[in-house]
Amino acid sequence: MTAGTPFNSASVNPQLPEAELMARAARVRLMIFDVDGILTDGGLLYGADGEQLKHFNALDGHGIKQLQQSGVATAIISARKSAIVSRRAADLGIAHVQQGVHDKHSAFIQLLTQLSLDAEACGFIGDDVIDLPILSRVGFAASVPNGHREVRARVHYVTQAGGGHGAAREVCDLIMQAQNTYDAALAAYLRVTPQDSASS
Prior knowledge:
Blueprint: H1 18-26, E1 30-33, E2 45-46, E3 52-53, H2 58-69, E4 73-77, H3 83-92, E5 96-98, H4 104-115, E6 122-125, H5 132-135, E7 140-143, H6 149-152, E8 157-158, H7 167-178, H8 182-187, H9 194-199
């Protein structure tokens, strides 16, 4: 592991050795995100006119963009349907978005067929039992500390950050670390140009 890795053995299912975790993350070609409790903190806010509001994390958004730039496709599968999620997905360039899905397994199978992928090449992060049909199939399954205990007990990785507070970014960083693309992505922000050197 090199500097900057988000990996922490305390966050891992104790039955899963670090080497296996990283091997699973290295195989991910499609990372799928739940929304409520993962990209948000799970809170549901309603305006006076009944409009549903959601709070997203900018760190998560940039992590998702970096993951896409590294060559990993991204998707959303969510039980709730919201125009706000559609807007957020569009802002982040997430091309595959399925909302209002209560049979998440069927949505997952459709996505695999559409993209000609095996389940082992996919990752998914979810927080509640409705997510278990996908979490039990993917090659890399993750959850959050505030996720349901039955979910946390069955995944390969539990993040240190909570849902809506950097959990998605942590997973993105971990995948990139496992695929040896993290350092290159970080280096792009650490480059010093000749002009910078002259002025320092």
